[in-house]
Amino acid sequence: MRILGLIPARGGSKGVPRKNIKLLGKKPLIEYTIDAAKESKFLTDILVSTDDEEIAIAAELSGYKPPFLRPQELAEDTSTSLEVVQHAVAFFESQNIFFDAVCLLQPTNPFREMGCIDKAIEKFIAADADCLVSVLAIPHEYNPHWAFEETGNGLLKIATADETIIPRRQDLPKAFHRDGSIYITKTEVIKNGSLFGKSIAYIESNPQFHVNIDTMKDWELAEKLLTQIHL
Hints:
Elements (H helix, E strand, L loop, with lengths): L2 E6 L14 E2 L2 E2 H11 L5 E5 L3 H9 L19 H14 L6 E4 L11 H12 L3 E7 L10 E3 L5 E3 L17 E11 H5 L8 E5 L11 H14 L2
Parallel strand pairs: 1-4, 1-5, 6-10
Antiparallel strand pairs: 2-3, 5-9, 6-9, 7-8
């Protein structure tokens, strides 16, 4: 299976200005994700998709010069990951280069346990799912079976539409949330307008490595984690 490793990195970050090339420890943020992708034995090619010259230079110094700068309309706050992935797929297909799937690796999740990308790809292939996402378990107090929605008349209903509340946490089904680290999607699903499709496989991430950098508080957490995991 031919799989493109796609690292999206726009220049106009707001919460942490210029975060993709900001030094985290001794190297730019984006380099952690490039290094993780380079370790994979299953990624056919790696693409850094950016609109920014400085980010493109940082990618080139890591060995992956972007073949294009992403159009500005795909680098706005309102631009979606799906649009960025579709643009990358269309670019390669215009060069007669085709991939069976795309593995989206966000640089805002810089820390990944060694081998996790290949484990995810192996599970994606074995499951023959439309996509695979990396996840973390949801603490029981936030389980959707214990969450409520307003009914509109001042009352509450269970968010899952259960008629009665599951009383014991031991009886709650395990629930997960996307951690943002890995998304793998079949190209045909992407071209049909979705990152997820109809069947979603998953791989659990190691919570010790988790940080999703959006604010300076997240950045400070990443600096603290870096001293603990020795990347």
